[in-house]
């Protein structure tokens, strides 16, 4: 089988199309990310992930963006609704122990749903600060404004995911909370000189296996390039100041915060120091162009991915989702 390209790609629909299968067999991506357009029922989703696992190289992750709240691809009636991080943060502000337990339980429940569907990596927790007056692109996706609370709650949710055998992806380093515009639509600029509070939750969770970058230009860190495309931010802040040594994913390269073709954006993300370029729309032309342009996954990135997989396997334990949901609902009624 050909070596995996250094990218994770989206699919067009709920089944793997013949053209997608042919493309991925010839030039396999490092993994696949799923969205609502790919999810219909538990049986359909298990069939899709089974087809993907048979096609992709061993160890290639299947991801889903599943934070709880408004960012959830697995939804009722087939999957449990999960609370937004902001609700967990509000509980934590009233009762520290209850909030931490609710965060762990929510991570474990998200992880249990993912694992049952054949999904091994969940894009959560959000470690961005929930700051007043900023754009709602974070909003209640963030736990709180207090960096220490965000760090602790993010840790608890990540540990819950790991207990289900699912790899957490902490996002969006080095912090998306000060964005005043939606990076899906435009490039946010942050002019704050002191970003220590934003960075703290990531530094406190630097041992987590995977992180995702932010499409934000931090003028005090690199006035010319957003973090995803900035060798300075990746090397000096994410790898340096934060101390993160795990697998680094770009955020979705199709977002309008960035410019250039999909292949150009992906190449710039890898050149900046991301291990894997993430491209989510599932369009045939973009997927083909990225697979054609990108190099194979590096040995270092492959080792980081293998370490993330091994950590989740080692942390996995038997869970009773019904009992966990009942406990979480007592702590945090819908």
**What gross morphology would you assign?**
globular
CATH class: Alpha Beta
Tell me about the largest β-sheet: 8 strands, parallel, barrel
Poorly predicted ranges = none
* Domain module count: 1
CATH architecture descriptor text: Alpha-Beta Barrel
CATH third-level topology = TIM Barrel
- Using only CA atoms, what is the Rg? 18 Å
Give the DSSP E fraction (strand runs of 2 or more residues).
5-15%
Distance between the termini: 47 Å
Give the tags.
alpha/beta; TIM Barrel; eight-stranded parallel β-barrel; two-stranded antiparallel sheet; 42% helix; globular
Explain how this protein is built.
By secondary structure, the protein is α/β, with parallel strands linked by helices. The protein has one domain: TIM Barrel (Alpha-Beta Barrel), CATH 3.20.20.300. It is 42% helix and 14% strand. It is built from 11 helices and 12 strands. The protein has an 8-stranded parallel barrel with strand order 1-2-3-6-7-9-11-12, surrounded by 6 helices. α8 links the parallel β11 and β12. The longest helix has 21 residues. It is globular. The mean pLDDT is 95.
What topology emerges from the helices and strands here?
Blueprint: E1 5-10, H1 18-26, E2 29-34, H2 42-55, E3 62-64, E4 66-68, E5 71-72, H3 85-94, H4 96-116, E6 121-122, H5 147-163, E7 167-173, E8 189-190, H6 196-204, E9 210-213, E10 217-218, H7 231-241, E11 247-252, H8 262-272, E12 276-279, H9 284-293, H10 299-315, H11 321-331
Parallel strand pairs: 1-2, 1-12, 2-3, 3-6, 6-7, 7-9, 8-10, 9-11, 11-12
Antiparallel strand pairs: 4-5
């Amino acid at each position: 089988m050909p070596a995996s390209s250094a990218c994770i790609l989206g699919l067009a629909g709920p089944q793997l199309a013949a053209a997608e299968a042919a493309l991925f067999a010839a030039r396999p991506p490092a993994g696949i990310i799923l969205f609502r357009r790919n999810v219909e029922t538990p049986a359909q989703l298990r069939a899709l992930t089974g087809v993907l696992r048979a096609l992709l190289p061993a160890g290639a992750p299947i991801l889903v963006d599943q934070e709880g709240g408004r960012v959830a691809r697995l939804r009722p009636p087939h999957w449990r609704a999960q609370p937004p991080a902001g609700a967990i943060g509000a509980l934590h502000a009233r009762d520290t122990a209850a909030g931490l337990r609710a965060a762990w339980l929510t991570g474990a429940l998200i992880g249990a749903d993912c694992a049952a569907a054949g999904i091994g990596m969940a894009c959560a927790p959000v470690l961005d600060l929930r700051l007043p007056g900023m754009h709602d692109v974070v909003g209640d996706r963030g736990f709180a404004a207090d960096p220490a609370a965000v760090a602790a709650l993010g840790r608890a949710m990540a540990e819950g995911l790991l207990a289900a055998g699912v790899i957490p992806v902490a996002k969006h380093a080095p912090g998306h909370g000060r964005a005043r515009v939606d990076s899906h639509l435009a490039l946010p600029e942050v002019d704050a000189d002191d970003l220590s509070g934003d960075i703290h939750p990531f530094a406190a969770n630097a041992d987590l296996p995977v992180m995702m970058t932010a499409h934000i230009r931090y003028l005090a860190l690199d006035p010319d390039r957003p973090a995803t495309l900035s060798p300075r931010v990746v090397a000096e802040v994410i790898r340096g100041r934060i101390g993160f040594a795990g697998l680094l994913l770009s955020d979705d390269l199709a977002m309008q915060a960035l410019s250039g073709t999909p292949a150009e954006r992906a190449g710039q993300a890898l050149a900046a120091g991301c291990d894997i370029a993430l491209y989510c729309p599932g369009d045939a032309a973009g997927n083909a162009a990225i697979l054609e342009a990108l190099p194979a996954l590096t040995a270092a990135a492959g080792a980081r991915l293998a370490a993330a997989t091994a950590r989740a396997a080692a942390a996995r334990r038997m869970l009773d989702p019904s009992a966990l949901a009942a406990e979480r609902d007592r702590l945090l009624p819908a």
